[in-house]
Amino acid sequence: MLPAARYSLGALKNQSKPLHLVSRTVHTRTKPRISPPPKLRPTGSDHNANSITPFGWGLLIIPATTFGLGCWQVYRKQWKEGLISELERKIHMPPVPIPDDLSELNQMEYETVTVRGQFLHDREIHLGPRACIQHGDSHTAGGLFSQKEASIGFLVITPFKLEGRDDKILINRGWVPKRYLDPETRREGQVSGTVELQGVVRLPENRPQFTPKQRGAIFMYRDVERMAAIGGTEPYYLDATVSSTVPLGPVGGQTRVTLRNEHLSYIMTWFSLSGFTTWLWFRQIVRGKSF
Fold first, then answer.
1. Of the candidates 157, 165, 92, which has an alpha carbon nearest to the alpha carbon of residue 124?
2. Which tens digits make up the pLDDT trace of 68-112?
3. How far apart, in whole angstroms, are the C-alpha atoms of residue 154 and residue 129?
4. Long-range contacts made by residues 261-264, C-beta under 8 angstroms, separation at least 24?
5. Cross-strand pairs, 155
6. Residue 39 class from Cβ within 10 Å (0-12 exposed, 13-18 middle, 19+ buried)?
7. Residues 114, 244: Cα–Cα separation, whole Å
8. 208 exposure class (CB count in 10 Å sphere: 0-12, 13-18, 19+)
């Protein structure tokens, strides 16, 4: 059959159908559009693997460093507690005679020794200003000073010649208020003759930061070497115990045996900083969130 005849036959068939059925048989060559799938956000693991730069990893040094400092303070706390226990043990040891070889005193700090000899008051040296360390009611024993004066005063450092030997050492006799700094104002307290007393061994003290260098006979810190040079003694230093206190004389017992132990607060500070910076790093670098 010819093409024209086929077309006519198809047209006749369509004319025999209702119009609404005819319209449904119309075909088009245009394909329906398919919407693309939604874009998926990268997961946390993908972000970790692809988005953290070397600089981001480098920022971990902050929490790592603060954590290390916290661990170091734990060690320091244990060391300081052991040192305090050792000082307490030494300070409560029974007194022993001062050794014949004075160099042994370098290994006896905070131990108590007994000495016998004479004070050389004409070479007296002063250390201060200092507050008085009061033991019980010692500040009224000699009637030397009032309660208001206890915050400002000086330590009296006097050369001491040991009996039966040529050695001389330095002895911190104790504390006096500022108005009694001049020895002439407390002549009754200047002990003469042979005396026996107990003293706590102290080693030289390093010059504190920002403290000016020593000038004159008033010292601001325990510079034993220079004190010995001025007093003409060996470089060894004792703190006289409170039992050495005499009426109108210096108040003995001016030895501080307590050490500052604030390492627990340092531990809490460093570990808190480590935890906070770790959380901040995770939030900013890993999660990509900003404030």
1. 157
2. 999 999 999 998 888 888 888 888 889 999 999 999 999 999 999
3. 5
4. 261/77, 261/80, 261/81, 261/84, 263/73, 263/74, 263/76, 263/77, 263/80, 264/77
5. 127, 175
6. exposed
7. 12
8. exposed
**Residue 144, both tokens:** 């030397």
H or E element, residue 127: strand 125-130
Strand partners, 199: 113, 240
Tell me the per-residue pLDDT of 129-139, one tens digit each, with 9 for 90 and over: 888 887 644 44
Beta-bridge partners for 114: 97, 198
The beta-strand segments (E) located in 167-253 are 168-177, 195-202, 218-219, 237-240
DSSP 221: S
251 neighbors 169 (Cβ within 8 angstroms): no
Q: How far apart are CA 50 and CA 6, in angstroms?
A: 65
Q: What per-residue confidence (pLDDT) applies to 82?
A: 87
Q: How far apart are CA 174 and CA 119, in angstroms?
A: 13
CA dist 253 → 33, 102, 137, 180, 225 (Å): 99, 22, 12, 18, 22
CA distance 202 to 199: 9
